[in-house]
From TrEMBL:
GO terms for molecular function: peroxiredoxin activity. This is Carboxymuconolactone decarboxylase family protein. NCBIfam families: ahpD_dom. InterPro entries: AhpD-like, AhpD_core, CMD-like. Residues 14-97 form the Carboxymuconolactone decarboxylase-like domain. It comes from Gordonia neofelifaecis NRRL B-59395.
Amino acid sequence: MDAVNLSKQHPEQYKLLAGLDASVAASLSAADLDPLLVELVKIRVSQLNGCAFCLRMHTRDAIAKGETTDRLALVAAWWESQYFSEQERAALALAEEVTQLPVPERRSWENGSLTAEQVSAISWLAIVMNSWNRLAIRSHYPVAP
């Protein structure tokens, strides 16, 4: 059997995920998180999950919002560079922790640069991005030049 496009097979579930995504976006805005930080988290979660569809989409979104190619090139190794602020580093570490669910818990993101509201909003962002990645990968969304 060819790949099944989950969003077309069950559009109601897709709409519910889109609604959750919109709710998380509102939480990110209410938590006063920079839109570029949000895109970096989406990109990093998509890298970890190997989701080409989401990587292309969010890289383009980040560029449109003013992100630099240098920083985009280094997201995969953010801890090795000085390109990212303390808050961005904390957000990326938190998103990795949510995505990879390490044992024992790392908690390297706890550097004081994120409020409780921001920790919650970024955690929900990573949860939703993991869902979008799995939807796109499982549905084999096309990613052609």
